[in-house]
Amino acid sequence: MDPQTAVAVAHESVLAYKALGAGIAVIALAGVGLGMGSIFSAMVTTVGRNPSARDVVFPIGILGFALTEAVALFALLIAFLILFT
Amino acid sequence: MSGRELSLAAEAAPKIDALGQFELHGALGAIGRSVNFTNSNLMMILASALLLATMYYGAKPQAIIPGRLQALAEMAYSGIMDMAVGAIGPEGKKYFPFVFTLFFFVFLGNVLGLLPYSFTYTSHIAVTGGLAVMVIVIVTLVALRIHGLKFFGYFFPEGAPKLLAPLIIPVEVISYLSRPVSLSIRLFANMVAGHVMFEVFGSFILILAGAGVVTGAFGILPLALTVILQGFELLVAALQAYVFAVLTCIYLHDAVHLH
After folding, report:
1. How many CB atoms lie within 10 A of CB B107?
2. CB under 8 Å, gap of 24 or more: what pairs does B22-25 form?
3. A63 Cα to chain B: minimum distance (Å)
């Protein structure tokens, strides 16, 4: 194609590339899912071995869950930034 | 299909406006618009008034056996006091008012946004960024006041070999400066993600209903999902406020004890 059509096609495809970029950005959520499962698996194992430890372990587990979810939302934020700006 | 037909087809498909709900509008009519008093400011004033009223009328009876409102105020007080003293140590009592205000400002901001037609002021990076910067500045000032210039020894852990100092110190400084960034983005992204999901699932219901009666009956599925999501967002609202406050307490612990 001539350069003018190529530029026009490139302009039109920006949305497609944005969608692609946003999709790639959320691959990071695989690691987050792994981490979340790990936190709760440790918590369940601890409570299983020592039920009286529940009140000690639970707040730390919930804090860990929230911090891991923050990383997931960093990835989501990048995806939003790519898509909408 | 030609490009024109494709773009016409894209125009015909319903678009979901996910981020329009976070726009600020003038509140309180013409007077509000003239001074740029927005719906965000209105919700902040509402949250502060709610908190002040609860604590004032909760503390007023001063009965030995508390009624419901007094019990609520006492539970709020003792909950945050236990968190602050548990995370910071006995000196935590001094920082209790700051942590209490921070926790309930964020909590009420998150929760008030779940009501229909209201606005979540913590869904703006300006608000959460401001809160996070305030936290880091206060924590640094507390550390400087208590420890003086020895505060800069915080960035070089004692047991580490001196040769690694050019490596360790920049890493420690960067991780210290990344605290307000992560604090603000965690809260802001949680709130934005929750409300975007509300908008998207709500739009699904409307899109299904718009496509006919039979597909409209399937709209019960996104409706059920939205109801469950509402419950989940309530949990996230409380949890994110708790995490913000707990991390502030942990940073204060670092400031007061220098590791």
Report:
1. 22
2. B22/B123, B22/B124, B22/B192, B22/B195
3. 6
Please give the residue range of the domain that contains residue A80. 3-84
Please give the ipTM for the structure prediction. 0.76
User: Which residue type, as a one-letter code, is found at position B8?
Assistant: L
Interface test with B, best of A60, A77, A83 (most B CBs within 10 A): A77
Check: CB of residue B28 under 8 Å from CB of residue B42.
yes
Instruction: Return phi, psi of residue B54, to 5°.
Output: -60, -45
User: pTM, whole model, 2 decimals?
Assistant: 0.86
pLDDT in tens, B91-106: 889 999 999 999 999 9
Six-digit token string for B29 = 């009519």
Query: How many structural domains are present in chain A?
Result: 1
CATH at A74:
1.20.20.10
d(CA B34, CA B190): 32
Amino acid identity of B146? I
Residue extents of the structural domains in chain B: 75-257
